[in-house]
Design a protein that fits this description.
310 residues; mainly alpha; MetI-like fold; 15 helices; 0% strand
Amino acid sequence: MSRYIAKRLLMLIPVVIGVTFLVFFILNLSPGDTAAMIAGEGADAETIEATRKDLGLDQPVIIQYGKYMWNLLHGDMGQSYKSKREVFPTLMAAFPNTAKLAFWSILVAVAIALPVGIISATRQYSAVDNVGMVVALLGVATPNFWLGLMLIILFSLNLGWLPSGGMGGWKNYIMPAITLGTGDAALITRMTRSSMLEVVRQDYIRTARAKGVPEKKVILKHALRNALIPVVTVIGLQFGSLLGGATLTETVFAWPGVGRTIVDAIKSKDTPIVMGGIVLLTITFSVVNLLVDILYAFIDPRIKAQYKRK
């Protein structure tokens, strides 16, 4: 197991290099003069040129990237062009807010998806199954930012029940968590149903029923545990994505998380913040996937045996 974990962690190195390379050059190809934006609207040509030199933007792009990666290798993500604050503390200040939202969002998704997916699988082609799958399809097709705006119009503007944005009490979590959770719930529901349908047709399930094992025990103890592996994979991927920052949802609800921080940095061409956010997103997503793979060993002992052989 330790060798497997070490191998997966080493694979992070080429992934981070590839992602940072693409993002860095895309940012440099995007329209707009970074030095002029940082210097301000009323800055003259001399001030802009001095700002460009001070930020190292007068050097070739490949040299800028090389210096950035050298500093990153030594644990330095640089300073924000705009605020002059260190990038790492800036992102770490926003990350807990994203983590809290991600936790409640995935909780909403799992609470909706598992019961609906199990019921749909055990009552295949029934009215419950058909309604559940139609709702799941709508959930996958509905853009998060549109759903967020509709919730704001209904519950904030028209009814006045919930705050429209920002981070404060528990009420501030409701609409963002529902916005993110419903989309993930649709995907997890379909995966749960497909996996359960495959498992309930297995011989050992028929044997358990033939022995007189109660149907509830057959489904929850025998079928569900063996159907969970692909479901856990999807949950892990979705949770990793949420931890990386639900960009549009955080922007719609003015949520002070990593996603909104990256969006604001892109608008001002604050490259160090964007690069730091992408690195954080990449590492977080990869680590969550690794934890999901390790979790497999506790769900299915056969996978633990495979780890030992490796």
